[in-house]
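Lab notebook, page 48
Experiment: co-folding of the full assembly
Goal: obtain a model of how the components sit together before planning crosslinking
Operator: M.T.
Materials (sequences as entered):
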Amino acid sequence: EPEVTQTPSHQVTQMGQEVILRCVPISNHLYFYWYRQILGQKVEFLVSFYNNEISEKSEIFDDQFSVERPDGSNFTLKIRSTKLEDSAMYFCASRAGYTEAFFGQGTRLTVV
Amino acid sequence: DQQVKQNSPSLSVQEGRISILNCDYTNSMFDYFLWYKKYPAEGPTFLISISSIKDKNEDGRFTVFLNKSAKHLSLHIVPSQPGDSAVYFCAASPTNFGNEKLTFGTGTRLTIIP
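Observation: model returned without errors.
Model output:
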């Protein structure tokens, strides 16, 4: 069964450093998303991406965040200068169109 | 701004009995609702969905009921099995196509007691 894969599974970084979280969506999907879940809280939408551009972004997705689909298969989330409050599980998701969103297993980001 | 609410943070049910998880929403624009199941250290896994033109959708042991006038949906699992122990998230979006984002509830931790 096709799945969304994310790497790394866990990333520890120092405050102020840049991180790149990587995702390989399901191959025939068209719509891509990043969500995050701070420990003990709900899953929150960050950004949606379609046709090589951002469709919608939340208030969380400020200038420190960016997304890219560099090669037609990978979908990346970059945080330019990490803050302690960026510590969370980050989930990539993709969908074909009239289907539910499929989520990856997540990347746990710990900012120290 | 909690547009999707799951008021029970946890629920314990005996194996074999029915588990009922509830979800309320406030945004009238929501027309498509989903339930996801999440195990620790894994991503959410899709369980079942329902669009607003229906009031019930069934898939094996899982049934979702939608009461649009009350802005309420529920997930019934019967019979409950130990492998059902997980966190269940209700999610909603305005449509089920295109690049609509999902708005999630806070989750209910379901524990099935053998």
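Interpretation: The mean pLDDT of chain B is 94.
Next step: discuss with group before ordering constructs.
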